[in-house]
């Protein structure tokens, strides 16, 4: 591993931008934060990158590139934001702008896919070929690593489990226009609305929002048979008691062979910085491998510090 190699990661959230320099061993050296201003998004990102480039020079580090993780509809092949409903933005060539300004390569992925790639490179991926990144924050989503590769799906939206239908009540209308979606029920429950679900005896004293998480995760475990699960997002970060409850109850509810194969559920390797670390992992994973598609096809966990390993 090249000790002097680093990357610049940018985690674009709905309210804040995080930009950091990360070394090839996963250590985060610097983090800068700015408010997310939709009207100035590109210029604010350019300014953060320019600061990070100067800091990297000061530290004597080469920069492999820029990685961006962003919530919303992303076209990673074109390097563009297709649409962000929360920011009211569409059709932005984010990587093109940053590349032109910085002279560095740049990649962008959906935020949870980027975080999953970070976990693949620096965390669970070191030991597991099949794992799930379970994100429970403002949004509910998952990333799947299947046989050592991030599974993105036919149109790149794999893992949008927030809109998994878990209740047939047509009055519970979700923002997506359909009804009975997991994320909407969790939001309603956390706002204090009464949501009635039939759950497992072991969950009867657990808040409904967490019962819903346990049901959803059990279904994912049955569907994908992972050997490990990492958690991220505000509902589960710094919440070891709830992660323990999730761990115990999914084992009671999942099919026996699936539960038996599962290692203890853990917080994401990057903790609160899982999104930033994931964004910063992209240049390490995609540099010198023929780009994103080739890297995904080859199994990006075989890529170390920009080099493809057999
Ligand atoms: Zn929905």
TrEMBL record:
<dbReference type="Pfam" id="PF00480">
    <property type="entry name" value="ROK"/>
</dbReference>
<comment type="similarity">
    <text>Belongs to the ROK (NagC/XylR) family.</text>
</comment>
<protein>
    <submittedName>
        <fullName>ROK family protein</fullName>
    </submittedName>
</protein>
<dbReference type="InterPro" id="IPR043129">
    <property type="entry name" value="ATPase_NBD"/>
</dbReference>
<dbReference type="InterPro" id="IPR000600">
    <property type="entry name" value="ROK"/>
</dbReference>
């Amino acid at each position: 591993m090249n000790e002097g190699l680093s990357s610049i990661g940018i985690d674009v959230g709905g309210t804040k931008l995080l930009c950091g320099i990360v070394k090839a061993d996963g250590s985060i050296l610097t983090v800068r934060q700015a408010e997310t201003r939709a009207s100035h998004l590109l210029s604010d990102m350019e300014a953060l990158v320019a600061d990070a480039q100067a800091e990297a020079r000061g530290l004597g580090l080469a920069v492999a590139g820029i990685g961006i993780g962003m919530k919303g509809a992303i076209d990673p092949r074109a390097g563009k934001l297709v649409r962000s409903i929360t920011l009211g933005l569409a059709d932005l060539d984010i990587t093109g702008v940053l590349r032109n300004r910085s002279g560095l390569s740049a990649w962008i992925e959906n935020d949870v896919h980027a975080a999953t790639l970070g976990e693949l490179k620096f965390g669970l991926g070191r030991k597991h070929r099949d794992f799930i990144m379970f994100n429970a924050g403002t949004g509910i989503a998952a990333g799947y690593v299947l046989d050592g590769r991030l599974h993105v799906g036919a149109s790149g939206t794999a893992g949008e489990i927030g809109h998994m239908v878990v209740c047939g009540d047509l009055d519970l209308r979700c923002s997506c226009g359909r009804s009975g979606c997991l994320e909407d029920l969790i939001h309603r429950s956390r706002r204090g609305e009464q949501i009635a679900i039939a759950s497992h005896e072991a969950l009867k004293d657990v808040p409904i929002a967490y019962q819903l998480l346990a049901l959803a995760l059990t279904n994912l475990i049955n569907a994908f048979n992972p050997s490990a699960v990492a958690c991220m997002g505000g509902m589960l970060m710094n919440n070891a008691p709830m992660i323990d409850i999730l761990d115990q109850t999914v084992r009671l509810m999942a099919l026996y062979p699936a539960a038996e194969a599962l290692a203890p559920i853990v917080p994401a390797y990057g903790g609160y910085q899982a999104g930033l670390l994931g964004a910063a992992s992209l240049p390490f994973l995609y540099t010198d491998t023929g780009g994103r598609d080739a890297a995904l096809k080859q199994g990006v966990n075989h890529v170390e510090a920009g080099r493809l390993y057999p």
